[in-house]
Amino acid sequence: MAFESVNYQCPACGGPLHFASAEQKLVCDYCDSRFEVEEVEALYRERQDKADAKADAAAATPKPVADDAVQELAQNAGYICSSCGAELVSDGTVAVTTCPYCGNSAVAPGQLSGDFSPDLVIPFKLGRDDVTAALKEHYKGKILLPKSFVTGSHIDEVQGVYVPFWLYGARVDGEVYFDATNETVTEESDRTVTTTDHYDAYRKGNISFKRVPVDGSSKMPDGHMDAIEPFDYDALRPFSVAYMPGYIANRYDEDCETCKARAERRMEESTISALRETVVDEYDDATVESKQLDYTWEDSDYALFPVWMLSTSWNGKSYLFAMNGQTGRLVGELPCSKPKLAIASVLFFVIGFVLSQILFMGENAFDPDYLTFDIEGILINIVAPLIIVVIADVLLVGQLKTANEATHADCYCGELDLTEKHDTFSHTETTVVMKDDKDD
């Protein structure tokens, strides 16, 4: 059974409304009238509540068992546009869309109510023109980006989407044992002696996290959603459907418990990192030996955040970008020019060779008599330049791949409360490297 949507139309002329990010008002596409969010919300609240209640009641009614094909057909039956009567096909997660026939924003009944009712929303602040401008800026400084991509790629689609996010809060109590080390290097006439003192370092403390975001939509790539963080939480507003017209809004299809594991991993990384900092303040280095973390979870919030999704195509491939609709941070993956990469690798090898000669050979740099290929010569003349090539290539390729999943939650935590610490000397390791004398 397809239910009728609620269409947010201009109170003055009945034309399509859209939320204008620059003005933070709803604007009519036809008569150019402006309306406050609260005004439109109040106008349509009763109608929206009735539509949601009808859909929620139908969803709660026991249904006869059907085969998989029938169930799938029922799920994707969609809903009826209340403006023109067209049937809008839905995959069951699209809560707000634009009717392709009449242009009005259609709010699917029951998709933003009950368990799916968001607590908070951040309205769009940046518009479509900002997305294309940000993409052009994103291309700049990418040395390995093919020139033909900049001139030949074309934009397939730009779509503003309210993406569902779970916001988690927790206090994390951690106990971590580290292997802390202090290293001393002594240069003698015929050898280099390295002495490493090891200590068992114990740290215990707690740290609180507020509103760590995890997207709750399986449609959205996690790397893109993580990489456009952070959002400015000062702009959080109580949820209102009136912010939705002109954009797509998705409800979550991954629930709070399912997404919690990602938030937990980020909190764990930040907690261990904070405890480790208290160790490296006193030692040269520290590695984790064992850990125990306990989580005291707060109630989570369900929010919709503004994201611009942009796709381009080039040489038969599609490239997806995401831009934070509030801050303008844009991420995505760009192609790499293999010829440019090869040229850059050769250039950095030459630079690495020159630097290694100057640093390691001193006044004998570039003297053919000292250009040897024994173990030391290979390290100086080949290995050191190759290391520089690898580091440079990784950095340059990394410029092209900015949609990376978050590994920590440092933006969302308070100060570490260190409650206990003690260190015990463990043992000493000594390594000796003999020097090879060269004849003048």
Summarize the structure.
The chain has 440 residues and is of the alpha+beta class.
Q: Gyration radius, to the nearest Å?
A: 29 Å
User: How large a portion of the residues is in β-strands, by DSSP E?
Assistant: 25-35%
Question: What global shape is seen?
Answer: flat
* Main beta sheet: 13 strands, mixed
Protein name: DNA-directed RNA polymerase subunit P
Keywords: Membrane, Transmembrane, Transmembrane helix
Transmembrane segments: 341-358, 378-398
How would you characterize this protein structure?
The protein contains 8 helices and 19 strands. With 440 residues, it is α+β, with helices and mostly antiparallel strands.
Topology (elements, then pairings):
Layout: E1 3-4, E2 6-8, E3 17-20, E4 25-28, E5 34-35, H1 37-60, H2 68-75, E6 79-80, E7 87-88, E8 94-98, E9 105-107, E10 120-121, H3 128-139, H4 147-152, E11 154-187, E12 191-215, H5 222-227, E13 237-238, E14 248-250, H6 256-280, E15 285-297, E16 301-314, E17 317-324, E18 330-332, H7 338-361, H8 375-398, E19 417-434
Parallel strand pairs: 1-6, 10-16, 11-14
Antiparallel strand pairs: 2-9, 3-4, 4-5, 6-7, 8-9, 8-14, 10-13, 11-12, 11-15, 11-16, 12-19, 16-17, 17-18
Helix pairs in contact: 7-8
